[in-house]
Amino acid sequence: MAIVESIVADLGGSFSAEHGIGLDKRGSMARRKDAVALDVMRAIKAALDPQGIMNPGKVLP
């Protein structure tokens, strides 16, 4: 999967084109998303779901 992702990224593509990442692509998201973008996503998730009860462990790596 990492090899395919690298080729896609070299061609200007994205590791995901769906409306959600899902469990299968959490690792891809961790490898391919900018660290700052992931931090912002985590901050938004924490603000909206401070108790972590909405879809726990399935949104962000």
From TrEMBL:
<dbReference type="InterPro" id="IPR016171">
    <property type="entry name" value="Vanillyl_alc_oxidase_C-sub2"/>
</dbReference>
<dbReference type="InterPro" id="IPR004113">
    <property type="entry name" value="FAD-bd_oxidored_4_C"/>
</dbReference>
<protein>
    <submittedName>
        <fullName>FAD linked oxidase-like protein</fullName>
    </submittedName>
</protein>
<feature type="domain" description="FAD-binding oxidoreductase/transferase type 4 C-terminal">
    <location>
        <begin position="4"/>
        <end position="59"/>
    </location>
</feature>
<dbReference type="GO" id="GO:0050660">
    <property type="term" value="F:flavin adenine dinucleotide binding"/>
</dbReference>
<dbReference type="GO" id="GO:0022904">
    <property type="term" value="P:respiratory electron transport chain"/>
</dbReference>
<keyword id="KW-0285">Flavoprotein</keyword>
<keyword id="KW-0274">FAD</keyword>
<dbReference type="GO" id="GO:0003824">
    <property type="term" value="F:catalytic activity"/>
</dbReference>
<dbReference type="Pfam" id="PF02913">
    <property type="entry name" value="FAD-oxidase_C"/>
</dbReference>
<comment type="similarity">
    <text>Belongs to the FAD-binding oxidoreductase/transferase type 4 family.</text>
</comment>
<dbReference type="InterPro" id="IPR051264">
    <property type="entry name" value="FAD-oxidored/transferase_4"/>
</dbReference>
<dbReference type="InterPro" id="IPR016164">
    <property type="entry name" value="FAD-linked_Oxase-like_C"/>
</dbReference>
